Amino acid sequence: MATIVMAGGGTGGHVVPLLAVARELKACGHECVFIGTSSGFEAKLVPGTGFPLEFIEIGGLNRVGLAQVTRTLIQLPLSILKARGLLGRFQAGVIFSMGGYVAGPVVLAGLWRHLPIVVMEPNALPGLSNRYVARFVTRALLNFPEAARFFPPGRSTITGLPVRPEFFAIRPKARETTLTVLITGGSQGSRRLNEAAQQSWNYFREAAFPVRFIHQTGSADCAALAKRFAESGMQGHVVPYIEDMPAAFASADLVIAGAGAGSLAELAAAGKPAVLVPLPGATDEHQLRNAEAFSKAGAARLVLDNEMDGGRLFEEVSKLSSQPAVLKRMGDQARKFSHPEAARQAAEIVESCLA
Question: Is the pTM of this model over 0.90?
Answer without folding.
Answer: no
